[in-house]
Design a protein that fits this description.
The chain is of the alpha+beta class and 192 residues long. The protein has a single domain, classed as Gcn5-related N-acetyltransferase (GNAT) (Aminopeptidase, 3-Layer(aba) Sandwich), CATH 3.40.630. Helices cover 26% and strands 32% of the residues. It is built from five helices and eight strands; from the N terminus they run E-E-H-H-H-E-E-E-H-E-H-E-E. The protein has an eight-stranded mixed β-sheet, sandwiched between helices. Helix 1 packs across helix 3. The longest helix is centred in the middle third of the chain and has 14 residues. The C terminus is likely disordered.
Length: 192
């Protein structure tokens, strides 16, 4: 049996948890990607910002963070985080994600999002998150992000005015969601 560093892996990417040791690579990639991310996203660009960010994503019941790594090289291509996980009758989490500039437009995040959905909807006793629903709140002008979730089978559920404080102002966000029972592109269901 071969050891894999990934929780889930596809043809081109693997998902693994954040580690403190990833700080230098993550922050260098985030710094290189500022133009790509602005004004939508502000990932940590210094080690001082990265350390508490990674610690929050690695140690808590209310969130799970995944680095998206290229399988051939192990290079960090981006990240997908499941935040604000609510249990009980809701079983829902909110997605946050970003590609790094060197990986943008190559389909890596589309593959990674599919892996995260499989992990999020897999039962907890099978080492998944056991969620029923994932949401993505996206500013209407962020066409790349909207295309990503639409392609992954999310449905548009509405608009939330003044939803999040981003880049110095309260911004409207479209609410996109997918549930474990929904059919995905290709006709399969998102279970297990």
């Amino acid at each position: 049996m071969t050891f894999s560093p990934y929780l889930r892996e596809g043809a081109h990417v693997g998902l693994r948890p954040f580690r403190q040791a990833d700080g230098p690579e993550f922050t260098a990639r985030a710094h290189e990607s500022r133009e790509l991310h602005r004004p939508w996203l502000f990932p940590p660009v210094t080690i001082e910002e990265y350390e508490p960010y990674a610690a929050r994503l690695a140690g808590g019941e209310g969130r799970a963070g995944f680095l998206v790594c290229e399988r051939e090289t192990g290079a960090i291509a981006g990240f997908v985080n499941v935040n604000n996980i609510v249990r009980g009758a809701f079983q829902c989490g909110a997605l946050g994600y970003g590609a790094f500039a060197h990986a943008a437009g190559r389909g890596l995040m589309r593959e990674a999002l599919g892996l995260v959905l499989a992990h999020a909807f897999a039962p907890q006793d099978g080492h998944g998150l056991g969620l029923h629903r994932l949401e993505a709140n996206i500013q209407p002008g962020n066409t790349a992000s909207i295309a990503l979730v639409r392609g992954a089978g999310f449905r548009l559920e509405g608009l939330s005015p003044d939803f999040l404080y981003v880049d110095g102002a309260w911004r409207d966000h479209e609410r996109w969601a997918v549930t474990a029972e929904m059919k995905v592109p290709g006709g399969a269901r998102r279970t297990g």
